[in-house]
Write the structure tokens for this entry.
Amino acid sequence: MTVVAAAPVRTVAVSLEGLRRHRGDVLATDDVSLEVLAGEVFGLLGPNGAGKTTLVRLLVGVLRPEAGRVSLLGQDVTADPRAASRLLAYLAQDEPALNELPVGLAVETTGRLRGLSRRDARSQTADLLDELGLADVQERPLTKLSGGQRRLAQVAAALIADRPLLVLDEPTTGLDALARRAVWEILRRRRTEAGVTVVLVTHNVVEAEQVLDRVAVLDRGRVIACDTPGRLKALVSNDVRLDLVWRDEPPLGEPAVAALLARSEVDGRRWSARLPAADAREALGRLTAGPALAALDDFTLATPTLEDVYLSLGGRAHDLERS
Amino acid sequence: MSAFLALYVGQVSRARAARGPLLFVATLQSVGILLLLRGVVDEGSDTTAQQVVAGSTVLVVAFVALNLLAQRFGMLRGTGALDYYATLPVSGSLVVLATAASYATFTVPGAVLTAFVGALLYGLPLGHLWILLVVLPLAGASLAGLGACLGLLAPRPELATVAGQLGMSGILFLGIIPEHRMPAVLQVVRAAVPSTYATDAFASSFARHLDVAALLTDVGVCLVVAVLALSLASAAFRRAVRA
């Protein structure tokens, strides 16, 4: 008799089916279906206005969809929106509700509202503030902190009470590199030790490539791609980005320059072209060999990023962050 | 209950840090009105004196519970801060109740001080001042409920602020001007405004002979308004979150 071991099946933590929702006259979420597996760090990437925040507010049960269904850890929260609040913690882009509270009390109160006893809320608050380097400022109101420290305090409030699902809307906005690392380290630990699932909203492509297991790319309310960052970049792996900065007016009389202009996005004296690698090599060769070189201030050739994926899939906006 | 306490303590702590100077202004404003009107009110006119002191006391409640709470909820709504509460396992009613309770609490020191100073200034008896302890929570709850409604229903935070301040001004004029000196139209308006019943109940506490039936009626109206306003505010909270 042959025994066939079953492949491990990963639980679906978040299931969105055919979600649709208007914001005013705009269809902000247009037939969105996604699945996030338990333990994943899943990203929603898109420029401002792509519909990320509306989608997240549908996911966390604040907004009701006009059509479609949201299930979290097997529970249909479209039918019972209150259930979402027992399963997840949500960090919005800003949390003004906490602003005038002292840091320690803001985190502790959030823990108590999530059902912790006073003792547990205090002990978890102390641990979190230590981990995020906020112990020294715990008595200060959030409004009296720097932007970065305030964001860290809001992150601490999201992390208290050990929810199995964290939905974080641009958690590292305004943080310096050190604080960003502290946030990612704490999330990594939660994931490995407790199998926490993270849904992360970002418009920072570098961050997306570094921390996400999978990413859904949004444009005008629709998911235009969803896969691992590596596989998505493979879609445009033959392309490279050629960025030029002109010192003076570019010599448009040069055929090589004129040809490149037709394929570039122009921002003042900065040109940016996404080209097949062979075309980019040839264009750069012609530019650097001819008289155009004298007018060039700088040039770079870069392998594709998720921003290139977004643009190649038909994305139109240009405010994705690259730092 | 523990969620209510956590919310209440958080709100009190927040308000203590942020609203201290405003609470001082609220009290100073009412005590200032008492001092200004001292020269106008006739000696021996107990009814008018009671009305002025009670109106000034209610003004403290209106400043904090109606005006500041309307601004608070207007800000929470305008900045999307209600999402914070909406994604916690607590009901909107609990958030409204705890916030209203914390603002109502902050009216106590100013209102008691105003009533006490007023009674001394106008030579009113202090024997029934305990009535304040019954009326203050109800007046606080009813005006806080109305303040929460204004803040949560106003389409923009600035409108919530304007509505809160207009409401406070209305309460000032309708509360301080003695009823028998008002034109008939204003007497009708006065009877329709919920704060009137709080003012009248406060005024009873300065009467030499307590009219228990009138006091119970006034307190009953305050209670009904509190329940209605807080219920409406809870519904407005749910509506504002989903907008």
Observations:
- Residues 2-242 of chain B form one domain.
